[in-house]
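dumping the sequnces here before i forget
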Amino acid sequence: MILLGEIVINIIHLFFLIFMTLPGGEISKRELHFIWIVDCSGSMRDDGKIQALNYAIKEAIPHMQRESENNIQANLLISALRFSTGAQWIIAPTKVNEFKWTDIEAKGETDLGQAFLLLSEILRIPPMTERGLPPVLVLLSDGQPTDNFKDGLEKLLSEPWGRKAIRVSIAIGEDANMDILQRFIGDNERQPLLARNPESLTKYIKWVSTVVQTASARPKSQQKNYDGFISNVDIPKPPEMLSGSTDVW
Amino acid sequence: MISKTKQVNNTHEFHAGEPVHINGLNIVCNVEKGLGSGTQGKVYSLISPDNSPLVLKWYFPSMATTEQYDILKSLIQKGSPSNRFLWPLALVNASKKEGFGYVMSMKDSRFKSFSFWLSRKVDPSFKVLLTACFELVQSFHLLHSKGLCYQDLSLNNIYFDPENGEIRIGDTDNIVINGEDKGNVIGTPKFMAPEIIVGKALPNTQTDLYSLAIILFYILFLNHPLEGKIESSIKSLDLPSMSKLYGFEPLFIFDPNNDSNYPDPAYHANALIFWDIYPDFVKRIFVRAFTNGIKDPTHGRVRETEWQIALLALRDSIYYCRHCGSENFLVTDSSVFEKLKLPVELGGINHEINVPKQNSTVERVQNNSVCWNPKCKTMNTRILNIQIDDRSYIALNHDTKIFPHHIDPDRKYDFSSPVAEVSRHPTDPQVWGLRNLSKNTWKVGKANGDAIEVYSKQSFSLVPDTQIDFGSSKGIVCY
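..and the predicted 3d for all of it:
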């Protein structure tokens, strides 16, 4: 009878069980820095480009948040850097769930080199963590650098984390200097994405903020021609842009 | 200025409300909304005539290959191995759209991605997790026994119900006949077998077995089996370092012969905590999966049937701590348990595999009968259980049910309806019994030597040394 009493106690445990959790904690994740590098030069005022950009990034945020929810590997931190006359950090590294985009305005020069210099200062340990994932750098520009971008780029690529970073560039309109955007990417396998209209800009921004994020962080299915030796991170193909054209920049 | 963005009219995209003719099912649905896009295509929810929840996956033009079309055709023809798979139901072509797509059932919202568990956003019990693991193994066993291979098994395409452990398997459109070398995926990095990463193999059923073992370890230990000290010493986990860690130099964190990748308590505390909780037979099977299973992809991997036995034995051993109610695992030293040491029973097995000794950085539970809950640590003794023949034992809790699986050797893995359940005496709540839910009459030998018959719907008192003849097997109540 004593032992049956033991089972009796078990019924009480049914109530306990509701509150019982298993031991341990969340799986340990690595830091993943995602950095927007945004051209705010005067020419971005033309044809509402800056408005389209503000809109596109805001549109991408919920998708970015949802994508990172399924991420078992990365703690996504988003920051933003703007360049026009000089360059400034406008958003410090922020957890994806708390990330908010404040509309930016366009005026001034295109000091891309300054932006690269500023970037190179943070792409080292510290301030980067000892245990991270390759950062994602997304450059958005519509024109020609007005300063010495070469030195800046060189400095950026001299930092191990700058070299290891997934670098993506989006040209806003036909006037952007594709050559420079290509040199930023460095990898000849991939080309800058050319956004000819607001619709494709929105699409590319959504793509970089979800798919590219997961290429660095959550491992995605890899295609059969995968070759683990060439690139640093395997990046899926950008969305296919077929003529759904609206206004053209 | 820019005018308002017009309706997307790409030839491979759908907009809300657009009709979709599904000839294979003889119905016309309407697109409800886009659910998201992946690397292969875009997925839409559909409004169907009978309100059955369907989704449409439409491939990007570059992914809409003839090979993919043929794979889908063959999968639809074969039919789903079980309702656990979100299987293609019908191909879809649309005259004005480029490429093709297919429809499948939508998974119910109660199914969550396992990432919710790994991020501790849901709070399942061990019983639920083990049920989910068992269902996964069982489903892939079924798939593989049909000669099919999944190719891209990872935590990204499986889902579970945190309430009961029922699972669903998505992304079934890459499933091919094993060895045919079709499809355009080779896997997901942390889940890919080393021989694929080093370029020696393409996905096949053996590599599926490896991915399955990774998933089981992730679910039960909340850690990747190869992520220990070596991983935490890597500053930037990029593709080259991943190829090394998971492909060229894979080393199990609990490798008994090499502790250079032992978990780092700062980052891999989960692995250490859970390693201490599970009984030795569980540790042993994982050691085999990630030592022999890595060295010898053809013969060294743990088979699904072995996982099934181990996972169910573990689930049957759950008892609730008498003090705090936490689920603990009963380890008996009886001969029955000796036989449960899977490797011995199933052949092909290394008797020499020892479970590695632990260091003392994290507080350790020495005895399995001491509750693992750090706030409790109650010593549990005399845990009531029933041993069935010399095969297995089941810890008896207030909510324990016994199934044909346990008592009928011819009905292994049959959990359709219980044959017995722990029950309470109708007038004396102090008395617990085992109720006969089967149609058969049990012959019960009481501890005092008396023999009684227990008919359907009747119960007998659970007293140690009581013997039960279920017909197909015999049990004895122990503690």
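DSSP finds 14 helices and 24 strands in chain B.
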